[in-house]
Amino acid sequence: MEPRKIVLPDSEIPKQWYNILSDLPTPMCPPLHPGTGKPVQPEDLAPVFPMNLIEQEMSTERFIDIPEPVIEKYLLWRPTPLCRAFNFEKLLDAPVKIYYKYEGASPAGSHKPNTAIPQAYYNKIFGIKRLSSETGAGQWGSALSMACAMFGLECRIFMVRISYDQKPYRRLMMTTWGGECIASPSDRTKAGQKILAENPDSPGSLGIAISEAIEDAVGGKDSRYSLGSVLNHVMLHQTVIGLEAQKQLAQIGEYPDVVMGCAGGGSNFAGIALPFIRDKIHGKDVLVVGAEPTSCPTLTRGPFAYDFGDTAMTTPLLPMYTLGHGFIPEPIHAGGLRYHGMAPIVSHLVREGMIEPRAYDQIETFTAGVKWARSEGVIPAPETNHVIAAVVQEAERAKQEGKQKTILFNFSGHGMVDLAAYDAFLSGRLHQHKLSDEAIALALKSIENLPKP
Ligand SMILES: Cc1ncc(COP(=O)(O)O)c(C=O)c1O
């Protein structure tokens, strides 16, 4: 009988993360200091992050040891199962084998604790007392609140207003784990006050919430900022997903033809993809696909440019695909995919042709997600529905091409706290949404005068 679940014993949990910076065939553009226009130095980042994480951010060491206290916490739910989606395969009736890595198994329900745990740990041993961060859908905020509780840190989360209203249960998860959750834009920071003065009904955005969290962290005592995606060290921590998947597939003698993930800031996608991209760099034939929303089409329609990671222009200039830091996405339900930029590592690999980005409409994604729920059981997070739509499309292509394909995708999280989004979809209140060329051109005005890569 072919296995439905491939599980690793605790002893097989990866002991190191994989750093793709050591294997890139071409170097990445450096992040720039917005004042001097020169590459950012570690000291520039010191008010924002602890030095141990800054070192990791800039490291080119191929494998980095996972500290023992982090492994101990990972073992609460890791290694996550690698599952075969037999029922979904049957439904699609295409010549595909579909494997998925189930990251919904974490206590917070997504991949986000994979980096929240080490970030809390490194801040703790550096002597930090409080972390500030932002959250879109609330997945990251809840993961960080949990991680802070585990390592005895205070936690303050600025949650994008639209998600704060749509997703009260994530807020309750954060407060249950001891975190403080504030709707953003808020009147707690200058960045928030400015936005509220211009638009008191602003739905918020990840860019605004990041500005508020950085301002709050830098202005506090023994406090630092923590980011749930985008940065190199976050991609690094998430590689535990792909490294486990490689061991699990090896156990059953499989290797994927296609590796897929949804991409908001890029972390869960990088987590599954980077260990396979390492193989690709060394000659393996594997297609790597990143799925994003048509309403926030950073990789498929944005330029590769230098841009700020936040709306108030407080971060270094990052080399990435972007829709412009002034972009405020439509309030679609996949809150975690509503970000104007993309991880520089993912952006670089897209630019180098190692990753193929594709965009999906929210109706298409929820249609795929409901099919999944009705065949495989788990109700996916709205973000995860994007990669499921990509899997459906890939299966259809395999059928048309008459080719047998093995697909591996990252099931980034379950949607048990996102049922309001399913309610909107099932009652016909969701509509197709594709960003217009005019809206993109307007948003990109905010980066016109920035340095070019
Ligand atoms: C379940 C889930 N998937 C995907 C994402 C997108 O983030 P990233 O691209 O960093 O993985 C989020 C972000 O909140 C999420 O909650």
Characterise the protein shown here.
It is built from 18 helices and 15 strands. The protein has a domain at 69-109 and 232-446: Rossmann fold, CATH 3.40.50. The radius of gyration is 20 Å and the shape is globular. The longest helix has 20 residues, at 232-251. Helix 5 packs parallel to helix 6 (139-151) and helix 11 (232-251) packs across helix 12 (267-281). The model has no long low-confidence stretch (mean pLDDT 96). It is α/β, with parallel strands linked by helices and 453 residues long. The structure holds pyridoxal-5'-phosphate (PLP).
What's the Cα radius of gyration? 20 Å
Which runs of at least 5 residues are low in confidence (pLDDT < 50)?
none
Q: Would you count the extended β strands for me?
A: 15
Under the CATH scheme, the architecture of the domain at 69-109 and 232-446 is 3-Layer(aba) Sandwich
Strand order of the largest sheet: 1-4-5-15-10-11-14
If you consult CATH, what is the topology of the domain at 69-109 and 232-446? Rossmann fold
User: Looking at the structure, what is the overall shape?
Assistant: globular
Q: Work out the strand percent.
A: 15-25%
Alpha plus pi helix count:
18
Bound molecules: pyridoxal-5'-phosphate
Q: What is the residue-mean pLDDT, rounded to a whole number? A: 96
Give me the secondary-structure category: alpha/beta
Helix share of residues? 40-55%
**The CATH class of the domain at 69-109 and 232-446:** Alpha Beta
Q: What composes the largest sheet? A: 7 strands, mixed
**Amino- and carboxy-terminal Cα gap:** 53 Å
